[in-house]
Structures are given as C-alpha cells and as structure tokens.
Design brief:
4 helices, 141 residues
Length: 141
C-alpha cells in the first residue's frame, strides 16, 4: 500500500470520527424521547449529509456531483445494515447497554464503509486505450 492510500485512510478515519461523534450526540439527544432503534435511525440520517461533504472534499479530495450524492446513500445503506445487525446483536444477544452499543457497532462497520465509499466517490476510471501499433514500413524489393 502506498503512502497516498495510507493518508486517505487516515483522513477517512478522521471524517469517520467526526461523523460518529455527530451521530452519537444526536442519538444521545434523541434516546430519552423515543425507542433506541428509532433514535439510532434518525441520528444516522441526520449525520449523512455532513459525511458526504467531508468525505468528498477532505477524504477523497474530489468534487461533489449529483451522481455521487445520489449514490452516496449506498455507502450509508451498507453502513446502516452492518451497524444495525451489530447493534441488535450487541443489545439482544450480548446484553450490551443501549447507550454504548451504537458506538461499538459504528466501529465494527468502518472497514466495510471505507471500501464502498471509495468505490462510489472515486470510481475506477476505464483503462486507457492501447497505444496504436507503429506503422510498418515496407522496404522496396
């Protein structure tokens, strides 16, 4: 892995920390007023727009487009699915406290979210066309 990719992963982690902090603060504010899973879902949705902008500009150093914005929820859907399964498992099967479980679930989802976000915000460009074959010169006989 080259240094540019390592810095990108580091920036992704910083954005993830900011996004997780935003998400968790929203969750804690909503948790007393509604069931934990509804509070979790609303907090997750509230933090998505900031995550898109931070990942676009800071992590992957690219420009936002409507296409990327419309595809970005796929990264969050992946994240949401992994976190949801982890959250429900941690609460119901492991007995983890409902205030701590979302934070643990968010950490478990990081590698999956990075890979999907990378694919959407920096799609692999098509390979360049092969170079033309050099012209063949025929020598006179």
């Amino acid at each position: 892995m080259h240094a540019g990719r390592l810095w990108q992963i580091a920036r992704f982690a910083v954005v993830g920390g900011i996004n997780t902090g935003t998400f968790y603060a929203c969750y804690l504010l909503l948790h007393p007023w509604m069931p934990y899973f509804l509070a979790y879902t609303l907090a997750f949705l509230l933090s998505m727009a900031g995550s898109f902008l931070l990942n676009t500009y800071f992590t992957y150093r690219t420009h936002p487009t409507w296409k990327k914005f419309l595809l970005f929820p796929l990264t969050q859907a992946t994240n949401y699915l992994i976190q949801s399964v982890a959250l429900l498992s941690l609460v119901h099967w492991s007995g983890l406290n409902t205030k701590l479980a979302p934070l643990v679930a968010a950490i478990l989802a990081i590698p999956f979210t990075y890979l999907v976000t990378l694919r959407i915000l920096l799609p692999t460009p098509p390979p360049p066309p092969p170079p033309p074959e050099p012209a063949r010169h025929h020598e006179p006989a």
